[in-house]
Amino acid sequence: MVFFFSVTTPFGIALGIALSSVYKENSPSSLIMVGLLNASSAGLLIYMARVDIPPSDFMGPKLQGSIKLQIKAYIAVLLGAGGISRRINDGEMADVRAPASARAAALTEARGDARVRAQTEESRERESRER
């Protein structure tokens, strides 16, 4: 296991360097691949947060001995999850949501659609007015 973890980072760096010459940022296949990798990463994070970690924390003898402490712990977990989802929905987390102009620009290159180009210009104007 130690060997696996110590090899994955250099392997990822070497793979990134090798693929950097052929990677096209806004091509449809690249956008699909990025979406799939983001979805799998998010799925693993959700799995760890909901299945692996809480049982080990909530099954300790200190927490099992006090119903009040259990209720407080569950409320804290729910408030934390609610706060994170609220920040994501409000768009406060910059890495989670791309600007509308970036999404529209990607669609323009993927489809070559004149209607999408017009939406790109409108979204850029809106974003510049909001700033």
UniProtKB/TrEMBL annotation:
- Basic and acidic residues composition bias: residue spans: 110-131
Say yes or no: keyword Membrane present.
yes
The record's region (Disordered) falls at 107-131
User: Domain of life of the organism in this record?
Assistant: Eukaryota
Where does the record place it? Membrane
Membrane as a keyword?
A: yes
Task: Keywords in alphabetical order, please.
Answer: Membrane, Transmembrane, Transmembrane helix
Report the main location listed first in the record: membrane
Q: Transmembrane ranges? A: 30-49
Entry membrane topology: Multi-pass membrane protein
GO terms under cellular component: plasma membrane
Citing just one GO molecular function, the answer is:
zinc ion transmembrane transporter activity
The protein's name: Uncharacterized protein
| Protein's organism | Stephania cephalantha
